[in-house]
Amino acid sequence: MNDTHPIRVLSRFPLAADAAGAKDLPRRMKILDWGENRNCYKSTVVVGRTLLERLADPDCPFSVVALDFEHNTCPGTQAYKESAEPRPVAGYGRIVCEEGKGVFLEMERWTPEGERMAHHYEDLSATPVLDKAGNVLAIASVALCRTGAVPGITFSPSPLSSTPTNPNKETNQMDFKAILIKLLGLPEDASDEAIAKAAEEKQQKPAQPAAPEPEGGVAPLAARIEALEKRADDAEKGAILAQARAEGKVVTLAADALAALTVAQLKETVEKTPATVPLSAQTPAAVKEPAAKPQPTEQQRRVYALCGMTPEEVEQWA
Q1: What average pLDDT does the chain have?
Q2: Phi and psi of 100, rounded to 5°?
Q3: Is the pTM of this model over 0.70?
Q4: How far is CA 163 from CA 91, 105, 178, 181, 216, in A?
Q5: Among 107, 19, 9, 118, which Cα is nearest to 64's?
Q6: 18 within 8 A of 98, measured Cβ to Cβ
Q7: Which of 11, 13, 19, 10 is nearest to 117 (CA)?
């Protein structure tokens, strides 16, 4: 359920002390900052894309609102209780929300009461309609009041100026919260608790560096892997065939047929092939060569000569 109770978020409104007509009153006044708005009530008031989208709806009931006195048009306030209809207002303006800058009230007309009484007030106070998370859904009204609650927002009373000015502060401040939300990938209306949790998780899980893409792209790498796999298969097939030969199996396969078989299919083929080559040797491992005949000694030759015989004749009758 939306919180429609007035949460007064106030901004400085220094009007000229001698302002006496609409020509001396501002045409455009900033009432809220983009992002979170600090205030003395410690309420969560966040301006984000939610308000942008609501205001873009042509049927939005809060596109033009009253600029009243001390919230005298807002039920529940002391000024409302002390007044009666028709309650006087200072004028009417269009609510404009600009991303990264904030919310502005662009005056369409000032009432005679506003022209006459505005210089009695020092501050502006927006009455935002909030959801439970503190996101601004609409601006129900804006009030001229005497006591401000939001520091650092001032407005030029010059009708020629269409943007807020502040000589003591830069108006184009960087919205660090919006930058952090974008870096963490969170919705623009993320709460402070969600931002803190996401930042802590990102710190605990550092992003892994992406693996470099192989030179030349993926296709050459895939071809290289395929070639390595084929080489490994060929080596395993060669080992299977060598084992088959050792077991006495004759596996006759043409090269293309062998290439077409997977390693598993070749194993199955070898297992079904019977051993046909004998594994034991059929010839002696070594053949003895005849020993060389010894030659007769000189003494034996003399004996052979005395007997009238030659060494060959002795060898023949030996």
Answers
A1: 78
A2: 80, -10
A3: no
A4: 19, 11, 22, 27, 56
A5: 107
A6: no
A7: 19
